[in-house]
């Protein structure tokens, strides 16, 4: 894995970005920097404002306030130039059903102004990346769900973008297809492409992202390397205690008084940084089930909200 290019200007910058729908602030003062050459996961529950953010980046919708800069270009003022350097993979499949795999790619090579003499090679390259060489002449409506999704990604890569936006790339896909797409995203990063991926799947964000921005209610509440965020907030292990006769309140109060963050997990109370539980506190809490901590623990402890 190449190391992210620290010190270079960010591939993408958002400052104080706001988008309202009537009284609802879907995006509410969003600040975000995406360093070049990394996969950044924008993680949040449904309704957090991820898609709205993506739509502003692609100039499908206009921010009410704030600044957006993509690869040095201010959006929406210079969105045409930004767009030429950027690959966009939409959440909803909008392939042309009547065209073959290769024809779908060729149309986009044309739209993205790949010079005519280079288009055939650009299509071949995209087919290779998406492992669709042997489906080049298959009509889109005859492709499996996983192939279609790979083609959607390949289509966004046909002009060799330096930045790729993936909006919920694996939503609704079965686990095997998700794995295929994950390796596709990892290989993009290995080629030095910057990837901004929105997702509401914790596992996806944790596995694929060099950095993750946790989003809730239209803002980024925390941004960092997943392992660092987990170590900082949730430690190595989490211990889950079943509810006592008085519910969780007493357990929760004691753990928090000892400086350990807690979260509710179904009927149980989860105590984070369980490896720091002292003998004295152990006497008060009893013993629960220990498991490794994860990004979900961080998210819930910061926002009180759950993601998938
Ligand atoms: P996410 O992608 O994180 O699920 P969205 O950006 O889709 O979140 O939505 C953020 C909030 O904005 C939600 O409350 C959603 O209902 C609202 N919203 C999004 N798009 C529109 C729209 N076109 N009109 C009105 N409300 C919208």
Descriptors:
binds adenosine-5'-diphosphate, Rossmann fold, Alpha-Beta Plaits, 11 helices, six-stranded mixed sheet, 35% helix, 308 residues, 2 domains
Task: Explain what the structure shows.
There is one protein chain. The chain has helices at 50-57, 79-84, 101-111, 116-129, 145-155, 175-190, 202-208, 226-234, 249-257, 279-285, 295-303, and strands at 12-21, 24-34, 39-43, 65-70, 73-75, 86-89, 163-167, 194-199, 211-216, 219-224, 237-242, 262-265, 268-271, 289-292. Strand 12 and strand 13 (268-271) form a beta hairpin. It has 2 domains: 12-230, 3-Layer(aba) Sandwich (Rossmann fold), CATH 3.40.50.300; 235-292, Alpha-Beta Plaits (2-Layer Sandwich), CATH 3.30.70. It has 11 helices and 14 strands. The strands form 3 sheets. The chain has a 6-stranded mixed beta sheet with strand order 6-7-8-3-9-10, sandwiched between helices. A 4-stranded antiparallel beta sheet has the order 2-1-4-5. Strands 12-13-11-14 form a 4-stranded antiparallel beta sheet. The model has no long low-confidence stretch (mean pLDDT 91). With 308 residues, it is α/β, with parallel strands linked by helices. The longest helix is centred in the middle third of the chain and has 16 residues, at 175-190. Helix 3 packs across helix 4, helix 5 runs parallel beside helix 6 (175-190) and helix 8 (226-234) crosses helix 11 (295-303). Adenosine-5'-diphosphate (ADP) binds at residues 21, 24, 26, 44, 46-52. It is found in: Cell membrane.
């Amino acid at each position: 894995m190449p190391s992210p290019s620290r010190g270079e200007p960010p591939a993408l910058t958002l400052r104080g970005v706001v988008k309202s729908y009537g009284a609802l602030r879907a995006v509410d003062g969003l600040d975000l920097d995406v360093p070049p050459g990394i996969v950044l996961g924008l993680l949040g529950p449904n309704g957090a404002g991820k898609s709205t953010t993506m739509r502003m980046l692609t100039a499908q919708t206009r921010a009410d306030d704030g600044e957006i800069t993509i690869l040095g270009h201010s959006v929406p003022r210079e969105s045409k130039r930004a767009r030429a350097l950027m690959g966009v993979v939409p959440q909803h499949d909008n392939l042309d059903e009547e065209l073959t795999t290769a024809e779908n790619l060729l149309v986009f090579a044309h739209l993205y102004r790949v010079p005519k003499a280079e288009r055939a090679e650009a299509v071949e390259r995209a087919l290779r990346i998406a492992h669709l060489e042997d489906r080049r002449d298959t009509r889109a409506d005859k492709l499996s769900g996983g192939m279609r999704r790979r083609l959607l990604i390949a289509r966004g890569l046909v002009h060799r973008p330096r930045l790729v936006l993936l909006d919920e790339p694996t939503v609704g896909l079965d686990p095997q297809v998700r794995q295929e797409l994950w390796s596709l995203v990892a290989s993009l990063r290995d080629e030095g492409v910057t990837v901004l991926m929105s997702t509401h799947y914790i596992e996806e964000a944790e596995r694929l992202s060099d950095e993750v921005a946790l989003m809730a209610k239209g803002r980024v509440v925390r941004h960092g390397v997943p392992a660092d965020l987990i170590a900082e907030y949730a430690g190595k292990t989490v211990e889950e205690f079943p509810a006592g006769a008085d519910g969780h309140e007493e357990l929760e109060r004691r753990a928090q008084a000892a400086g350990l963050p807690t979260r509710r997990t179904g009927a149980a109370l989860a105590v984070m940084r369980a490896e720091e539980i002292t003998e004295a506190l152990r006497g008060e809490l009893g013993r629960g089930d220990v498991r490794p901590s994860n990004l979900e623990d961080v998210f819930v402890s910061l926002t009180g909200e759950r993601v998938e």
